[in-house]
Specification:
This protein has 208 residues and is of the alpha+beta class. The chain has 3 helices and 11 strands. The chain is globular, with a radius of gyration of 19 Å. The two termini are 32 Å apart. InterPro entries: NUDIX_hydrolase-like_dom_sf (IPR015797), NUDIX_hydrolase_dom (IPR000086). One of its GO terms (cellular component) is cytosol. One of its GO terms (biological process) is nucleoside phosphate metabolic process. This is NUDIX hydrolase. GO terms for molecular function: hydrolase activity.
């Protein structure tokens, strides 16, 4: 048996969108189950996201602390953002987010991992990149607003982040997945064996 996710789509008898927001919406589908029953499934429709595990030469990850209203916490996170344009190249979006949130650029980009954040209730797909060869970006800093205006920036040793994840002190999905993935990659075939930055992404197809 091959342990690999595979595309599949069960019959949908009907669909409606009871809520449409600024970036996402809620959809209700009437889905035919294997036994023939038809059930309603509500889920958030999401454009997709990118995130960046930016690692400097001192083995420190660039992290941000930001208020997240739904969970009423300030969370340490890695730079991330929405794929605002359908078909947008995820690498370009990740480079933009790293510049806007940290005013940093990177020379070496790899795909670290691809995840569905909450597939039981949302179709959000996230591509997490590994960025190395960091340097200060040129030009003016991006103007921040709302939650981002209160954002803190730090460079934290990777080992410290791993301890924080396993101790239950760090909870952001992309940070947890990114940090543990880079450690796993190192203990396996190495970081240079990761997929190239323009690797296909069936969950959110794009033009290279």
């Amino acid at each position: 048996m091959t342990i690999k996710d595979a595309p599949e789509e069960w019959e949908i008898r009907g669909t409606e969108t009871p809520f449409t927001g600024n970036k996402t919406s809620v959809r209700t589908d009437e889905v035919v189950m294997p036994g023939g029953a038809v059930v309603r499934r509500d889920y958030q429709v999401h454009p997709g996201s990118v995130a960046v595990l930016a690692l400097d030469d001192a083995d420190r990850a660039l992290v941000l602390r930001q208020y997240r209203h739904p969970v009423r916490q300030k969370l340490w996170e890695i730079p991330a953002g929405l794929l605002d344009v359908v078909g947008e190249n995820p690498l370009h979006a990740a480079q933009r987010e790293l510049y806007e949130e940290a005013h940093v650029k990177a020379e070496d980009w790899r795909v670290l991992t691809d995840v569905y954040t909450t597939p039981g209730g949302c179709d959000e797909a996230v591509r997490i990149f590994l960025a190395r060869g960091l340097s200060e970006a040129e030009g003016d800093r991006f103007a921040v607003e709302d939650e981002e205006a209160d954002m803190e920036l730090a460079r934290v040793p990777l080992d410290e982040l791993v301890r924080g994840v396993l101790a239950g002190d760090l909870h952001n999905n992309c940070l947890v997945v990114g940090v543990l993935s880079v450690v796993a990659a190192r203990s396996g075939d190495g970081l240079d064996a990761l997929r190239p930055a323009q690797a296909p992404w069936p969950a959110r197809p794009f033009e290279a």
